[in-house]
Write a structure and sequence with these properties.
40% helix, globular, 6-stranded mixed β-sheet, Rossmann fold, 2 domains
Length: 387
């Protein structure tokens, strides 16, 4: 039976990778991701995980190694953060274009400069258009569960795409929480052996990532886009199966106290739990506020978001990344686009906060709700800037 124990979230992620019977791990250490791959290195060295572990000379090399491993038919995992993810950038497009089901855990951290080791979403938002699927965890249990789910989603022959599971740097990665760690027999019922769709075989040569002239390039990109959008069906199937087996339910957009709400908060990642406490306190003060938490960011859950917001007058976005030179943050762009052609749409307020690891507090959510109820929306507001 599964056992519940106090464990560092990074270590729980490593346990999930081990339980998935991963064949190859390639990684380069970078704060605050290092604990995950350090633990996996120990597991391989101690014989707990029968896998190849390659300590690459850079993150660019690590993700390049993952390409070769995945093409060869090995279940493949890597992890990184911030500048390490940025260094992988050019290869991420290749992994998606070649339809390789690599699983990557990104411990979200601010991009330099100035140098910061603390968490926000600037690193992964810079990779939102690469063709990778993306899930966001709000706590340690979700980080463990989503890591297991990611292998099953990515390797489904209807998907065959790389996937990122995001967790907040330090405020999740280095925190000890009570997490239910599944037994190997339980995981084996959920995750099957990896069967690559197009395995390399010297007896049947194939070409991957070939040169494409203009007459074919756009069709290849359209296939990736179609696969990303159609993966939503598989993600929901996997989440439903996981819920039936282990009792924990996942949805693309999780709702909290939204039934009678006229104003809704929208969050991504770990600040959702802080927002939930804020909602409880505002409800006690008579404010009809609810909360939406995005768990699936790529593909973007357009239909689910529209349905979740349909009865609310106002939507308040709280995001931790900015698009410098644009009119707001990446999540704000997505949400406005989702409602652009809708006849009935909410008033949308886009707030950017928590950059570089700045604390996001209960009072911040109360302030955003209060300001949104009183004021007309601006293109966006950057919260907490010192004059």
């Amino acid at each position: 039976m599964a056992k519940r124990e106090g464990i560092e979230i990074s270590i729980a992620v490593a346990e999930a990778v081990k339980l998935a019977n991963t064949d190859m791990v390639a990684a380069y250490p970078i704060t605050p991701q290092t604990h995950i791959v350090e633990k996996l290195a120990e597991m391989v060295a101690d014989g707990e995980l029968k896998a190849s572990y390659i300590n690459a000379e850079s993150e660019h090399s690590a993700i390049s190694l993952c390409l070769g491993s995945s093409i060869a038919g090995a279940r493949t995992f890597t992890a990184t953060s911030s500048q390490g993810l940025a260094l992988m950038h050019e290869i991420l497009y290749i992994a998606a274009g070649m339809r390789l089901p690599i699983v990557m855990l990104v411990v979200n951290r601010a991009l330099s400069a100035p140098l910061s080791i603390w968490g926000d979403h600037s690193d992964v938002m810079a990779e939102r258009d690469t063709g990778w699927l993306q899930l966001f965890a709000q706590n340690g249990q979700e980080a463990f569960d989503m890591t297991l789910q990611a292998f099953k989603i990515a390797e489904d022959h209807r998907v065959m795409l790389p996937i990122i599971v995001n967790i907040d740097g330090f405020t999740l990665s280095h925190v000890i929480e009570p997490i239910e760690i599944l037994e190997q027999a339980e995981v084996n019922k959920f995750i099957n052996e990896f069967k690559p769709l197009y395995p390399l075989d010297p007896r049947q040569p194939m070409t991957f990532g070939a040169f494409a002239v203009p007459e074919y390039y756009i069709e290849a990109k359209k296939q990736v886009e179609d696969a990303v959008f159609s993966s939503a069906k598989v993600i929901k199937e996997v989440w439903n199966e996981f819920g039936k087996l282990f009792g924990r339910k996942y949805t693309p957009v999780e709702s909290y106290k939204t039934t009678d709400a006229n104003i809704l908060l929208l969050t991504l990642g770990g600040i959702g739990e802080t927002a939930q406490t804020a909602v409880d306190e505002m409800r006690a003060d008579g404010i009809k506020v609810g909360l939406l938490k995005l768990k699936m960011y790529r593909p973007f859950p357009i239909a689910e978001l529209r349905k979740a917001v349909k009865n609310a007058k106002t939507l308040v976005i709280a995001e931790r990344a900015m698009s410098i030179g644009g009119l707001g943050g990446p999540l704000g762009f997505e949400v406005r686009s989702a409602f652009y052609n809708e006849t009935k749409k909410p008033i949308i307020h886009d707030y950017i906060l928590g950059l570089g690891g700045r604390d996001v507090k209960i009072d911040d959510f109360k302030m955003m709700v209060s300001r949104s109820l009183k004021n007309k929306p601006k293109e966006y507001e950057l919260i907490g800037v010192r004059e």
